[in-house]
Amino acid sequence: MSEMINVEEIFASKVFTRATMKERLPKNVYKEVIKVMEQGGELSLAAADVVAKAMKDWAVENGATHYTHWFQPLTGITAEKHDSFVSHPDEDGKMIMDFSGKELIKGEPDASSFPSGGLRATFEARGYTAWDITSPAFLKEDATGVILCIPTAFCSYKGEALDKKTPLLRSMEAISEQALRIVRLFGNTGASKVVASVGPEQEYFLVDREKYLQRADLVFAGRTLFGAPAPKGQELEDHYFGTIRERIGAYMKDLNIELWKLGVTSKTQHNEVAPAQHELAPIYETANIAVDHNQLVMETMKKVAGRHGLTCLLHEKPFAGVNGSGKHNNWSLTTDNGVNLLDPGETPNENIQFLLVLACIIKAVDRHADLLRQSASDVGNDHRLGANEAPPAIISVFLGEQLEDVVKQLVETGEAARCLEGGKLETGVSTLPDFTKDATDRNRTSPFAFTGNKFEFRMVGSADSIASPNTILNAIVAEAFCEAADVLEKAEDFDLAVHDLIKEYLTKHQRIIFNGDGYSDAWVVEAERRGLPNIKSMIEAVDTLTTEKSVKLFHKFGIFTEAELESREEILYETYAKTINIEALTMIDMASKQIIPAVIRYTKSLADTVIAVRDAGADASAQIDLLKAVSDKLSAMKAALTKLEEVEAEAGAISNAKEQAFYYKDVVKEAMEKLRVPVDEAEMLVDKQVWPMPTYGDLIFEV
Ligand code: ADP
Ligand code: MG
Questions:
Q1: Rounded distance from Cα 186 to ligand 2 centre (Å)
Q2: How far, in Å, from the CA of 66 to the mean position of ligand 1?
Q3: Tell me: the pLDDT tens digits for 506-544?
Q4: Which of 641, 633, 649 is nearest to 592 (CA)?
Q5: Which of 194, 198, 201 to mutate for ligand 1's pocket (most ligand atoms within 8 Å of CB)?
Q6: Whose CA is nearest to atom 14 of ligand 1?
Q7: Cα→Cα distances 249→2, 243, 278, Å
Q8: Using a CB cutoff of 8 Å and minimum separation of 24, what contacts does 32-40 make?
Q9: How does the average pLDDT of the chain come out, rounded?
């Protein structure tokens, strides 16, 4: 029998929760903290001192020796610099563990090596971390001991955002303010805040750690750069939702426990489409906490894998030819008095507030499809979006039959008198209950799908932070809400005005609605006819950040300054170039030091065999054919390797970041693909004993 897990007991046991604060803080300080958490503003230094002391005592009681301001620089992962609570010993030489309010609220990591895209020259390299009081502090335990982690935002000396959290928090304020104007128009005066909620479904692969370590490509690039397909792929669909293997099950159990302790509401787990691929989804929560928690999920997935002799691959495309990994970002808006603005109710056609919200979102997505596309791009995701895999790179909105019908009526007549109903699902088996079905089926091919009471943005990459997609979603919808409120607040006849506005928005922006098969070639053609952008790669999406409409949007809601946007562009180009550079160098290394030598040895042994067989008077034609075939691949590899080395050297000499990034995409990547072809073909010919690394079959079927 395995040990019992008491979820209630362990849940959030490593979090400085509200309940812990309530228990440990004087009433007035607790009240002040909650007020700032809920309504914004600043904590007084006196209160901060009290909170810091309580936090430190709690952390130390739980074994902590250090604290860190935990932040999310533009590398896309989290950063921490540990400081111990140790202070000067007192007169008797006794150590007093210390932590002040000042240290809690503000930090100044010497973080000049983080990407800043020119926002911070090294001579003015000050960067500050500021406590995000809305995201709870937690304890992280690893080889360095127990560390108190304080979620923080990271800004430059001049207040420019150097991280992913600051713009997200700004966007949350913007959407709250604008959404409030909308709900007020409909008579909801009780709400004082509108919260963006997010639930990300995280996909990942698990491979055996020993095998992983034998593949330089997995170690350095997080994905395989070579590898012939295994005889079996995902075609039988026997992995999706399949029984979870023992070793994986033990991993998932351990992972859940670690996440629950951190207050992450890990909820669903299942095998995904590709062999060795899995998914974990937590219960949705406030956007910035969801972002922080998703970072913890990714980190914990990797950490726990090590304990089980496994390695967790979060890359969007670790293996060619089988499904890659993404992150479905479920997003909705809820007032603090409990109304989900995306809940259509039983009869959406009569729910005018919902229809206005929907019309605004459709308008926002159509107007800023390019920005949404950008927010979901990273280097790895280029292998999915617009490549051979779902979802497509074209943004469209899926509404489902019921809402599509309502929209159609509104566009055609300005009225939506009817509403399709769900009806009964009849199984035809008398012992099974007939249940009411949803009025809308699911569409798995849409990048932006309405799923009942939320939108599911399915483009996001598995390794990426979900901060950018949610910042963009909040920003673009805030803008649409603002414009609608500007009109409606002045309207003499509100009912008429709102009716006209919904019709106007839906009519103007209906081209973004698409309920068909998003994977089909016909859609690509149709989307082009509709004038929808089809941005094929990460770096082609970069300059969507600084178009006139984007700069205006971000400026209006104080989410990004132009300088911040330009710095982000610079960083994106640099990141792209650096990543492809690492991949190219890894390929060169593997090809020249492992693969080509192995193939040479193999041809030598074949040649020896040919001679021996002939000398023995037998027919060596089969061996000769094989030798010729392998030798052909060998010369093709050598030629492709030389070419890759050439273009790689050229790429390094380009100084302009954008130019360099495009050179990597157009020239270096192509040379990489050309090298991969003969290598993968050779792998199919060469004796498995001789092949210098574990194969796809070894990696994804033998976990
Ligand atoms: P699916 O069937 O789409 O795979 P999952 O259960 O795996 O569904 O994930 C759905 C995600 O959506 C979960 O994280 C869930 O908490 C989240 N979610 C549910 N309702 C909302 C909502 N109103 N707003 C945001 N996220 C939500
Ligand atoms: Mg799911």
A1: 34
A2: 36
A3: 999 999 999 888 888 899 999 999 999 999 999 999 999
A4: 641
A5: 201
A6: 199
A7: 12, 9, 11
A8: 33/133, 36/133, 37/133, 37/134, 38/193, 38/336, 39/192, 39/193, 40/173
A9: 92
Cα 267 to Cα 256: distance, rounded to the nearest angstrom: 8
pLDDT in tens, 563-580: 999 999 999 999 999 999
Give the three-class secondary structure for 425.
strand
C-beta of residue 656 within 8 angstroms of C-beta of residue 562:
no
**Are 244 and 610 contacting, i.e. CB atoms less than 8 angstroms apart?**
no
Closest atom, ligand 1, to C-alpha of 282: 14
DSSP 89-108: --TT----B---HHHHHEE-
Determine the residue of 204, 284, 445 to mutate for testing ligand 1's pocket, defined as the one with the most ligand atoms within 8 A of the Cβ atom: 284
Calpha distance 150→139 (Å, rounded): 9
Q: Best substitution site from 172, 330, 446, 454 to test ligand 1's pocket, by max atoms within 8 Å of Cβ?
A: 330
Nearest CA among 119, 104, 124 for reference residue 73: 119
Protein residues whose CB sits closer than 6 Å to any atom of ligand 1: 197-199, 201, 268, 281-284, 330-332, 340, 453-454
List CB contacts of 93: < 8 A, sequence separation 6 or more: none
Residue 367, H or E segment: helix 352-367
Q: How far is CA 270 from CA 348, 588, 700, in A?
A: 33, 37, 16
Q: Are 308 and 251 in contact (CB under 8 A)?
A: yes
Q: 2 pLDDT exceeds 70? A: no
What is the distance between the alpha carbons of residues 602 and 311, in angstroms, rounded to a whole number?
31
- B/e letters for 658-680, b = 16+ CB within 10 Å, e = fewer, are bebbbbbbebbbebbebbbebbb
Cα–Cα dist 258/298, whole Å = 12
CB 243 within 8 A of CB 356: no
Residue 201 Cα, ligand 2 centroid: separation in angstroms? 6
CA-wise closest residue to 479 among 179, 168, 164, 169: 179
- Between CA 463 and CA 317 the distance in angstroms is 10
**Nearest atom within ligand 1 for CA of residue 281:** 14
Q: Whose CA is nearest to atom 16 of ligand 1?
A: 283
Residue 92 burial by CB count (10 A; 0-12/13-18/19+): exposed, middle or buried?
Answer: exposed
Which residue would you say has higher pLDDT here, 255 or 350? 255
Residue that is written with structure tokens 């012992």 in the block: 431
C-alpha–C-alpha distance, residues 59 and 145, integer Å: 12
Query: Could you give phi then psi for residue 155, rounded to 5 degrees?
Result: -130, 160
Global pTM value: 0.94
Atom of ligand 1 nearest to the CA of 330: 26
